[in-house]
Q: What sequence folds into this?
């Protein structure tokens, strides 16, 4: 159950700002849009601030009119947007808010709602449930506790977030409660095949060519238990793919038979590599990510290393091998 102090604060607040993590994925967007739509039904002034456009794959989600692009200020905090209450959703620490951390710090009341076990409990009021498959599960619970009725739009946002964070209900974070919640959501006119196609199957020519290059980059180590896959900025430019279309590439390495850990190295800038980590069963990749100022879940985590992809592999390689060997 959501803590009563959070419920009371949201009931009292008339002006609410919602902040999902940077490079928001399906769960971050779905939970933010669902909560915003729910609070709008109670005549609250609600805004969602993002630092980037909503990825094309999620542009079917309702509530986009509540999303504003955040432009960081270079002057005094008097120019920073200030909400009576700010809610960080699906965000494990303040760094994951990016430039919008100044919005969070400038708010009257600060709430943190998340499901990452590595969450740093950075707000005045925190509700972190690592047992939830997605933050959308927690927001579903919150909306219920607030006494707000679901509708088709809210249900679609929640369903999308749960679908993405469970990998289409294939990951081991999927629980009986996950299915119980989804069994209610699908009663709200959700086109299940269409949503699944948009998220998992629709593919542009550019992405197809990028996947080909990514597959060719795969390196296998530790008797095939460790797979590394790389995408550089040059590869994205050569294929004409969108930056956002790198999402899901790690699964081509993870799904190789015998692989326990997959690591995806994506070049973001000349000296910045985003590292995504996935494990199938026993390996704890959250521990690996935390050693490099990242975080996440036992089987899905990530971090950013300020070097090129080649050097990033060298830096994190021994930690990945150790995660494999800790099971022995």
A:
């Amino acid at each position: 159950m959501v803590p009563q102090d959070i419920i009371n604060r949201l009931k009292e607040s008339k002006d609410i700002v919602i902040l999902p993590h940077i490079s928001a994925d399906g769960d971050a967007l779905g939970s933010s849009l669902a909560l915003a739509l729910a609070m709008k039904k109670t005549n609250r002034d609600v805004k969602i601030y993002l630092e980037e456009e909503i990825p094309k794959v999620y542009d079917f989600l309702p509530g986009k009119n509540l999303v504003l692009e955040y432009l960081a200020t270079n002057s005094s905090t008097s120019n920073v947007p200030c909400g009576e209450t700010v809610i960080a959703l699906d965000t494990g620490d303040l760094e994951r808010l990016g430039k919008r951390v100044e919005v969070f710090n400038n708010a009257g009341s600060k709430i943190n709602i998340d499901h990452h076990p590595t969450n740093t409990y950075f707000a005045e009021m925190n509700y972190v449930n690592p047992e939830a498959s997605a933050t959308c599960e927690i927001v579903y619970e919150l909306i219920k506790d607030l006494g707000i009725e679901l509708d088709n739009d809210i249900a679609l946002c929640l369903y999308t977030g749960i679908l993405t964070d469970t990998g289409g209900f294939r990951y081991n974070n999927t629980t009986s409660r996950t299915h119980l919640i989804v069994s209610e959501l699908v009663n709200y006119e959700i086109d299940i095949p269409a949503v699944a196609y948009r998220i998992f199957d629709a593919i542009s020519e550019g992405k197809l060519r990028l996947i080909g290059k990514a597959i060719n980059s795969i390196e296998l180590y530790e008797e095939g238990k460790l797979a590394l896959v790389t995408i550089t900025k040059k590869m994205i430019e050569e294929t004409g793919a969108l930056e956002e279309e790198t999402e899901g590439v790690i699964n081509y390495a993870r799904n190789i038979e015998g692989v326990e850990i997959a690591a995806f190295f994506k070049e973001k800038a000349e000296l910045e590599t985003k590292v995504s980590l996935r494990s199938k069963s026993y390996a704890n990749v959250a521990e690996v990510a935390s050693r490099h100022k990242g975080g996440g879940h036992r089987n899905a985590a990530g971090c950013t290393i300020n070097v090129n992809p080649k050097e990033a592999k060298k830096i994190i390689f021994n930690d990945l091998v150790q995660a494999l060997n800790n099971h022995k």
Remarks:
- The chain has a mean pLDDT of 94.
- The longest helix spans residues 309-325.
